[in-house]
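Tokens for chain A. Residues wanted.
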């Protein structure tokens, strides 16, 4: 499953697609499922005029990071610039 949403790049004045989650059932992993899903998302985004597809990956998730980089995803921050991911929880419960 890929969970994402259409957004807008104020820098490029164009739509973008942000991937929020990518998940594959454990028994189906390492079979190219995520690659096929992501390729579909990329093609959809191109077809809808998106200027980019964005996502975040944990630094300790090496298999996912390698997959994303093999599809052309790269670092978006200038070298030496570290971004923080901040959250404001509005309801109680699991993250």
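Reply:
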């Amino acid at each position: 499953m890929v969970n994402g949403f259409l957004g807008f790049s104020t820098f490029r004045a164009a739509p973008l697609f942000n991937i929020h989650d990518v998940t594959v059932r454990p028994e189906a992993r390492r079979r190219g499922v995520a690659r096929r899903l992501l390729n579909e998302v990329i093609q959809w985004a191109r077809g809808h005029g998106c200027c980019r597809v964005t996502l975040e990956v944990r630094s300790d998730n090496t298999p996912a990071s390698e997959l994303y980089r093999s599809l052309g995803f790269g670092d978006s921050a200038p070298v030496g610039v570290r971004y923080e991911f901040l959250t404001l929880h509005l309801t109680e419960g699991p993250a």
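Residues 33-47 form the longest helix (15 residues). The mean pLDDT is 91.
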